[in-house]
Every structure is written in C-alpha cells, then in structure tokens.
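Annotators were shown the component list below and the corresponding predicted structure, then asked to write short factual statements about the assembly.
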Amino acid sequence: MTPDSRRLLPSDAPVTMIDPQGEARGDVPDDATLLHSLGLLTTARRLNDQAYALVRQGRLAVYPSSHGQEACQVAAAQVLDAGDWLFPTYRDTIAASVKGVDPVEALSLLKGDWHCGYDPYEHHVAPHTTPLATQLPHAVGVAHAARLRGEPTVVMAMCGDGGTSEGDFHEALNFAAVFQAPVVFFIQNNEYAISVPLARQTHAPSLAHKGIGYGIPGERVDGNDMAALLTVLGDAVARARAGEGPQLVEAHTYRMQAHTNADDATRYRDDAEVRPWVERDPITRLRAYLTGRGVLTPAVETEFTAEAERAATHLRDGLNQDITPDPDDLFAYVFATPTPQLREQAALVADELSREVAPS
Amino acid sequence: MTVTHDKLSMAQALNQALRDAMAEDPAVVMFGEDVGPLGGVFRITDGLTAEFGENRCFDTPLAESGIVGMAVGMAMNGMRPVVEMQFDAFAYPAFEQIVSHVAKMHNRTRGRVRLPMVIRVPYAGGIGGVEHHCDSSEAYYAHTPGLQVVAPATPADAYALLRAAIEAPDPVVFLEPKKLYWSKEEIEFPVRAPGIGTAVIRRAGTDATLIAYGPSVPVALEAAEVAAQEGRELQVVDLRSIVPFDDETVCAAVRATGRAVVVTESAGFAGVAAEIAARVTERCFSSLAAPVRRVTGFDIPYPPPKLEHFQLPGVDRVLDAVDDLQWEQ
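Structure shown to annotators:
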C-alpha cells in the first residue's frame, strides 16, 4: 500500500479525546466552544425527550429520536458556517434545529401538517429525507454547483449505517470523489437499521473504510465524544472547503431508544446491550470534563437547563397548536402553476366542502 | 430580429436548442454518460463541451440515479441542469430519484424549492435496437404527479419544446423519439411554436380524429394521407406534451369529427392511450358516433429487431381501427 492510499484509511480505532470518565487527551477544543456545545446538547436532549412524549400524547405520528446521539447531531451543525448546507435524514431533527430550523417547523412532517415545514433556503437545510441515502446525490449536486460558481460552501451530508447499503450512498460518494465536490459524508453508525444490526449491512472493517474505494479519506470517531466530533468533523469541513474534495466520517454511537415509538426494540436486542452505552452518554461525559476544568458552574448549568426548558415549551406549544391544513394546498404546489386538470380537481374538493352540512 | 432558415434533423435541432440555451443562460449545464467529447451516442450534445467547456457539458460516472440525484442538488442550488439518460430503459435506475424527489420536491416544500431540470430520454423503438433500447416508458412518468412529460414529433417542435423545457420552472421528462432523430425539416428561426401543454392540429379532417404524440405522429399523418386517397378525411392531433394534457384542443377536435382513434407505440394496457380514450369518452360522449379506439403496442416486452414490426402500430392497423368506427349507422 502506498503512503498516498494509506492516508485514505481511517485510524485503527475511533478518535476519542474525552473518555467516559471525563479525562481528556490530545488537542481538545477550547473551553468556550465546548461549553457552548454542552448548552446545545442539554437543549437537544430535552427536545428529543419532549418530542418523544408528544408522540404519546398523540401530537406526533412517530418520532425517530436521536436520544444518545446528540453529540453527533450538535457537532454536525456546529462545525458549519451559515452558508453551508446540511442534508438531514429523518432522525436528524436536532441537527437541523442547531443549524437554525425551528424544531416545530422541522416536525411538521411527523405532525402531519405538511411534508417539509420549513424553508430549506432560510438556513440551508435540505428537507428531511426518508428514502434512505437518496439525499446524498442531492448534497453532491448542491456542492458541485457551489464549486462551479467558486463559492466556499461545504455540504454536510448525513446518513445512518443502514443507509450505507443503498446504491445512492455508493453513487453519491463516487460522484463526489470524481468531481471533488466539497461534501462531508457523515455516517452516524448507531448499530441498528430498525431491527437489523450492522453485521447485516457490511462486512467491511468499518464504514469509514468504505472511503478508500472511492479515493475519499475516511475517519472514524467516537460518536459520543463532543470534543472528538468537533475536531474530526471540523477538520473534514476545513479540508473540503480548502478544495481537498469530499470527506467521509463515521461516528460510532448507539440508538438508545427504539427506531421510533412504533417500534419494539425488545424483540431484537437485550437491555444488557443498551446498559453500557448509558455510561458512555455524551452529555454526562462532557459535563464531567467541563466541571473538572472549572468552567461549568451551577449558574451556567441552571442557565442551560432554563434554555432547554424554554425550547421544550416552544416545541410543546407549537405542536399543541391545532392547524387545519388548507385542502387547496393539495393542488397548489404540484407544479409552479397548477395545470387545468389540477384546477378542476381543486374545484371538486371545494365543491364537496361547500356542500358539507355545517354542524348544528 | 433576423429570421433564418435551416434544414435540420431532429437530432440537429435538439443540439441547436441546447447550444442556444447554454449560450443564453450560464446556469444551464448538460451532463450524463458519453455526452462530453463524444457528443452522446446519438450526437445530441455534439460540440457542446468544445464550445462551452467541461464545466458546462460533462461526462459523469455511469450511474443514472447519481446523475439525476446530482441534477436535483444542482437545480436546488441555482442551476438549470439538463441530463441525458442514454436509452429509455437505462433510466430505470434513476426511477426512485425521479419519482420520490424530482417529482415531489416542489410540492414537499410548498413551492420553496423549485427544480428547473430536464431529463432527456432517447426513447421508443423502430430503429432495430436490441432489448432494453426501445422501451416506451412514458406511462411511468405521466402517472407520476409533479412531472411534465413532453414528446416532440417534428424537428421544429423538438427545438421549441426543449427550449421551453429548459426554461420551465418545473422538472420535465423530455422524450425524444429515436426513430425520428434523423427526420429533417426546414426550420425558421426564431422558432414560433406553442409552449408545453398545448396540442396542435397537424392535419385538418372532418371524418375522424387521430390522436398521437412523438413517434406515432408520422404514422398517423401517413394513415391520414392514405385515407384521403380512399375518400376519408382524417384529422391528426399531435399532443406534443402528455403532461400537462391539452383536453381543450383534443376534445374540440374530437367533437368536430365525432370519431377518434388514439395511436401510441407503448403497450396498451394501463397506458397513456387508455387515459386519452377515457378522457375523451368522459368529456365528449354525446358527440361520439363510435367508441374511441386505441391502436397501441401489444402488452409484451419490446420484441427483438426482427419481430419489432409486429409491435409498432402501422398505417394498416390505424386504418383498420378507423374502419371500425361504426360508419354504417
């Protein structure tokens, strides 16, 4: 193997900077950055758990929670500039919200009001995509268009471990490499695709090893270590922005809860498997480190908790609002200008509504 | 404005449309398989890389889903991509991208994200192509809400409709009848033609209406010519676009004659011809002297070259259908 190809391979083990006990090694990001991250993580956890509760209350159809994966969610958005793009999957509501999207709008899809509830151009966040990996070629296109115009945009393209088995994952990485598009492919390996474990997705030594097949440098990182994530993803973004082409980062994390509230994880995994991951929780770990550094004071903690509560209240209030979607919208956006046939069909629905007897 | 005339094949007209669109708008980019220095297997992109550079017309890896998916992203980010699927049946790997994203992005985002992109598909048969090179795939696209589906039948229309497709705010599946690539016509530039969504009457006639698009239009015109020699005047409607569908022109034409035959090359069952027959029947029933007839390909996989003439609707089959339109009453 040549030195040049060896540089495409990931580290022998996932990069870790702060261990589960809060002990640090290496060039850890500065305290202010990590403290900011902890605030975002606190809110992220609160939002995940609030959204989960809102499903039980019937306000959301389901919620694919990123509980336990919040460090990946926060880092993915925290390393980006405002002009950079984020391409989230359905589990990446938190990443979208850190990038600026109102979580109430982000959850419109699961509330059932409309598919994409936010303006993708406002914060450069693409619509949540549910067909796996299909958003990755779009990310390449956005990046390639930006590169052709000489803009410094970087695109963060997210997917899960299951998504790496899809053809579009392969095609997107291959296209990005051939065109040297500034895309960071960020795989959150949370060990499960609904019920199917990683061993059924790949026989590769790691998902980060897939990069070398495309000529893309791959790296793996402890997905519950905020400091390592900021460093590895930050470096990947910097390299992509500097014209070094696409980057692949695999974060090792764990889906602490079931796929969604509609799933029953006890049918395919033991609680004993879940327990050790509680000890590796990304928030506990960062809190221990920053407490040791003496920068996480009770006052700051109180402020973080208050901010998280404000965000949860906003989410609750937003999702508790009963919006009656306008049936005209069914026909208004199929094309830029509705066809005569769609106008006829809209008129049919309007006529049905006009003939409905008003409740006495 | 200077008016010029040029006798062009449909392939040359398409090439000219791409060249003019790219010259006018730097956001227009063309990419796909072999569309760069080679100029495409049908030479539709001939000379574009040389003229506009490889950032404007370029070859991609051989992967249709990636091609269409990348076009989605580029369209999201300010470009007007035109992509070529090398052959009709080679577009199927891109089907998920087309159905789940190209067609739905505008609706999903309440019109905030528009995808002004064109998917060019050399399509249909009649050129002696081996399997997977001759599919009539229009029904798949036409059945998918959110896609405009266009099929030109003449070189002038190929030029006008491709320019319109590139300028359209919505995604367009642009079906290029392969067997007509080499058909020639004197074209007047600038081309004056109605836009997407408008059908035209290619031949006037009072006895019955033939409805066709793309590769079937010349068949319908030839049938009308033969019928005229036999004393029957057939009107020919060229749909030009399948979506949006021009109910107004089609229904006015059928009401005027009271008889209609729909001619398509694609398999008949659950196809575009079935939709047209149903629409015409629903809207024009009281004007009809006979049931609307369909002349279509059979419900079989496209045959090998030595048998394809059985599959293609020809003049005789069209005239037989016309004969069946209850003239005796």
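Statements collected:
1. Strands of chain A lie at 85-87, 155-160, 183-189, 192-193, 196-197, 218-222, 247-252.
2. Chain A touches chain B at residues 114-116, 119-121, 126-127, 131, 134, 136-146, 148-149, 167-168, 171-172, 174-175, 178, 329, 332-336, 339-341 (CB under 8 Å).
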